[in-house]
Amino acid sequence: MKLKPKSLLIIIGGTLGCIIFFALVSLNAFRSYSTTDLHSQGKMAAELLRLTITHEMEEGNPEHISPYLLDISDVPGLINAHVIPAESVIKQYNLDPNRLEKMTATDRKVFETGKPIEEFIDDERFIFHYTIPYIASQKSKTNCLSCHHAEEGEVIGAVSIKMDITDQREAAFESVATISAVLLFFGIIWAFAITHIISPVIDTAAELKNAVSKGKAGDFSARIQKRSNDEIGEIAEQTNQFMETLEGSFGEISKKIEGFTGVCKNEDRNLLEHTTGVVDDLVSATQFKQYIENDRDLDEVFNRISRVLKQRFGLKRFSIYENNDKDTQLRLISSEGLPEGADYWCDREITIDCNACRAKRTALTTGSIADDEICPKFAGNIVQSDNHLYHLCFPMMLSGSVGGVLQILFTQEEVADVQRNETTLHTYLSEATPVIESKRLMLSLKETSMRDPMTNLYNRRFLEEYLPTLLATAERQQSSIAILMCDVDFFKQVNDTLGHEAGDTVLIKVSEILRQSIRASDLAVRFGGEEFLAILIGSNEEKSLEVAERIRTTMAEHTFKTASGNLQKTISVGISLFPVDGDAFWECVKFADVAMYEAKETGRNKVLRFTKAMWKDGENY
User: Fold this and answer.
1) Is 478 helix (H, G, I), strand (E, B) or coil?
2) Counting beta carbons within 10 angstroms of the beta carbon of residue 469, is it exposed (0 to 12), middle (13 to 18) or buried (19 or more)?
3) Which of 54-58, 85-89, 145-149, 366-370 is least confident?
4) Is 230 left (phi over 0), alpha (psi -120 to 50) or beta?
5) Which residue of 58, 62, 490, 595 is 20 to 30 Å from 479, comparing CA positions?
6) Where does CATH 3.30.450.40 sit in the chain?
């Protein structure tokens, strides 16, 4: 029930309750007073009769009471008064026995109990009937036993009095009605006053409720009328100020958030809930960005993105692809939900030609909800045919170009959830892409710092950082590592006679020969100047000699073409084995260097395996 009808009901009910209460109290007071008065009158009449009877008994004329009874009946309101003698009195004084037949049930009860009885009779008139017993006793003033043949305490008679109190009752009702009318009059005045006082409270409360309801829906235009100058008026003023503040600030904040996210509010959605949801998504996305910023490398970043897609967004099927500006391929980072035996949700062509992917080529979000054939390379429904799948592909923009693609797949039943989360997915990707770009740059810088810019071979710094992994692998596989130290013979003459440009051409070609002569799992390092290291993982002496000889012969047979003319160059190679020749890796590098210098001193253009005889104490190489 609303406040206004409730308050009116309380006022009316309270007023009527007060009137009824005072009426009942008044009627009860009249009844109590009337009953007490009637008792007094009855006792007086009974005592008068008793005295009269006693006097007549002493006179010896028991029948002479009738004239007295007639005189008593003239008393106002007294309509009947008679005496009922007991059976013993009738026999003793030889009275008319028919009197016993005139006894009523009330009379008999009085004789049986010896107690007075009163009753009200509501017939044509309202009668008060009062019957009082006469009890024989020596202690009475007249000593009843002196005249009556009766026992102590015996009822020897009763007097019955009937009084008409109709007029008194009507007078009481009239008095109560008058009091009730007065109370009603004052109740109406009181109710009007109370209503006038609380009416502004009720109306203000109703308008406040309406304003709050509109505010919950994002409409802050409601205002409350000021009806008084008390606290209710202050509430109205402060509420209006509050709504104006919300309308001017919160509404503007909502617009800015929508502009920031690029998604407008759904008309069916509560603006406050919408804005709160957007803010929560932004906070969550920002926390996500902080997490991936602290991840060690790109692998950890992409693993975290996969976990978020599964746990935060509840996606069951998706793929993450990465693309490098220098690469024409899309590299699959991770994939989820593929049937057994399947590798991709798309045609393999996109891993060879990245422009075969529509999202990569157009840099636009691509989806099949509206057009099932929008991307011919999507193969989700070929890979699995149990349930028709739709897809959405989000390009990840890095430095103005597409650096990766997030592909999600979903069924018809999941379309609504995906559409609801699409904006949040965009937000998460927007937070992730600068981190991915930053870590890519860091990786590129690190890669650059660990490669020789001219030959693109790893440098000594890389070897120092990679060495713990290299040694751990060798220990785990219980294999040896062959170290080949290679140095171009008479390289200084090239720089001095043909110039540094010709020398650079020679070094670049030497690095190519070195890479082509070793396995993909081996390492080629430019150690410094014209010195190169070939690290053969898991190689023995025989294999290392074979590789070194291949390097030497290829070098000797190759003709270097420079701007100053063609020339031939040779190379000297020294070999050592770790941990065969020494317990320390860098010690074995030194041994390979010693063997290489031994090859140079003994004629150059040769391969020598390190022996302990080559080590000369105190001699520096």
Assistant:
1) coil
2) exposed
3) 54-58
4) beta
5) 595
6) 308-446
- pLDDT score recorded for residue 620: 45
Per cent of the chain over pLDDT 90 is 30
Distance CA 284, CA 286 (A): 5
Helix then strand then coil, % of the chain, to nearest 5: 55, 20, 25
DSSP for residue 250: I
CATH number at 458-614: 3.30.70.270
Which residue, 43, 37, 48, 179, is CA-closest to 116? Answer: 43
* Low-confidence winner among 103-107, 313-317, 574-578 (lowest mean pLDDT): 103-107
Contacts of 408 (CB under 8 A, 6+ apart): 309, 315, 317, 318, 391, 392, 393, 394, 418, 425
* One-letter identity of residue 159: V
CA-nearest of 250, 245, 231, 239 to 208 is 239
Unique residue bearing structure tokens 């009824």: 20
| Residue 58 in this model has a pLDDT that exceeds 60 | no
Nearest-Å Rg of the Cα atoms of the chain is 61
Helices (H), 500-580: 500-517, 541-557
Residues in the chain: 621
> Which amino acid is it at 407?
Q
524 HSE (CA, 13 A, CB side): 20
Phi, psi (rounded to 5 degrees) for 509: -70, -35
At 366 the pLDDT is 94
Confidence of residue 64 (pLDDT cuts 50, 70, 90): very low
The tens digit of pLDDT for each residue in 327-361 reads 788 899 999 999 988 899 999 999 889 899 999 99
Instruction: For residue 223, give the nearest of 247, 199, 201 by alpha carbon.
Output: 247
Question: CATH assignment of 3-164?
Answer: 3.30.450
Contacts for 238-242: CB closer than 8 Å, 24+ residues apart: 239/208, 239/211
Return the ∠ at Cα 343 (arms to 342 and 348), rounded to 5°: 115
Q: Is the pLDDT of residue 389 over 80?
A: yes
Residue 386 above 80 pLDDT?
yes
The answer on pLDDT for 260 being more than 60 is: no
Q: CA-to-CA distance for 536 and 295, rounded, in angstroms?
A: 33
- Identify the CA nearest to 49 among candidates 77, 79, 82: 82
CATH architecture of 308-446: 2-Layer Sandwich (3.30)
DSSP state of 313: S
Alpha-helical regions (H) of 269-325: 271-293, 298-311
Q: E strands within 143-275?
A: 155-164
3-class SS of residue 270? coil
Long-range contacts of 54-62 (CB under 8 A, 24+ apart): 54/142, 57/147, 58/147, 62/93, 62/95
Q: Under a CB-based contact definition with an 8 Å cutoff, are residues 198 and 170 in contact?
A: no
Cα–Cα distance measured from residue 185 to residue 600, given in angstroms and rounded to the nearest whole number: 132
What digits encode the pLDDT tens for the residues 425-446? 988 998 898 888 888 877 777 7
In the chain, the N- to C-terminal Cα span, in Å, equals 104
pTM here? 0.52
